[in-house]
Amino acid sequence: MKGVLCDMRKGGIDGDLLMLSIVIDSFVRAGHMSRALNVLLSCLCHRSHVAAANSLLNSVKGKVCFDVGTYNVVAGGWSKIGKVGEVERIMREMEADGAAPNCRTFGFLMESLGRVGRMDEAVEVFCGMREKNCQPDTAAYNAMIFNFVSVGNFEECMKYYNRMLSDNCEPDLDTFDRIITAFLRVRKVADALQMFDEMLKRGVVPSIGTITTFIKRLCSYGPPYAALVIYMKARKSGCVISMEAYKILLMRLSEVGKCGTLLSIWEEMQECGYSSDLEVYEYIISGLCNVGQLENAVLVMEEALGKRFCPRRLVYSKLSNRLLATKKTEMAYKLFRKIKNARSLENARNYWRGNGKGFQTKCANSSGDRVFASPLARKLAEEKNVTSSQVSAPSKAKGATDAALDYINIPVSQIRKVTASRLLLSKQTIRHYYLTVDACVDKLMR
């Protein structure tokens, strides 16, 4: 179970209530009551319900054996909101209970002091750890690095980072994440890339969410060259790139007109198993238009329409205007006809799905004949004299659609004018077990 949870954490997958209950129940069944309590306290503190976590801790005191981790969870919750007094109280309770504070506990104390601006006291606590026979570890150094990063003192931040290395403390993902994020926040891109290289050299593999955060921040200002460096190095190191990160890169590359890189990233995205959606197609079409590759843009537009993605009017207008400006009137007209048909289909489908709950009715009796729920369906059955035995299984949907269209008997040209969606959604049940939306809409729009 712990291995699965670690894989979820590396993959950036968040758990739900069911998973939480399974984890707690597993610990309870195994007799690890303290661990089950720690999981529940962690969830409360993670959502800033520290007071509730503290009340729960006091209510079960004496019933469940507390360890250092139990106290650290609540102390970490208080440190996130800068409650120094509460963290010190938790430490006193630990000592009274016979549990000695560890480096993580001192780290929470230093972090809470840094949040309220008491940096000198945080330094004193750090220097006094050795006097209490507690050698600073990665968690303690991370607390000091976070304190100096929060006030923008990068010189002291790197000083403690180098001290960490000299004390043979290996920096973890949290260390690099905080330093790189701080560099990117003040637009020190070169320093951020240098720290990213060092992170990969030390074998620290960033998670999906970490890579996405770096790329998103780098793409928020200027051309995405640094974001591409992060992307290529992360992909080369075997890191998983999220769909959101791919979309951000495609959007920025489309805006700056880097068509070759845009298509390469799109191809790599598909190789990773991600399927293109409407946003991706819009970025590709817009990028191809920006560099004048109108024929390729039309091909991508047709591919999107073939997958029933109808791009926005802004994207279509951009492509259409470029085609007309380059005297490609025939190509623009053909594209116009395809877009018009695709939008009619999309509007009809959306209207059907939004209002057609009564259409899809399962009707069958023991004798094999159909039972129809609406007057239109019954009349269709009487006029066509169709039963379930006369219609083969593969052609039921098609037969139902043809029968409905024959009964309605309205020309297709008039259907387009009157709007196919209103005709389809007459609040009647068409003869079929489960008549699909697309079958009837496609038949009407031909």
UniProtKB/TrEMBL annotation:
Mapped PPR repeat ranges: 67-101, 102-136, 137-171, 172-206, 277-311
Name used for this protein in its record: Peripheral subunit-binding (PSBD) domain-containing protein
Domain Peripheral subunit-binding (PSBD): 371-392
Lineage, uppermost ranks: Eukaryota, Viridiplantae, Streptophyta, Embryophyta, Tracheophyta
Natural source organism: Vigna mungo (Black gram)
Membership in a protein family: Belongs to the PPR family. P subfamily.
Coiled coil spans: none
MF (Gene Ontology): acyltransferase activity
Cited NCBIfam families: PPR (TIGR00756)
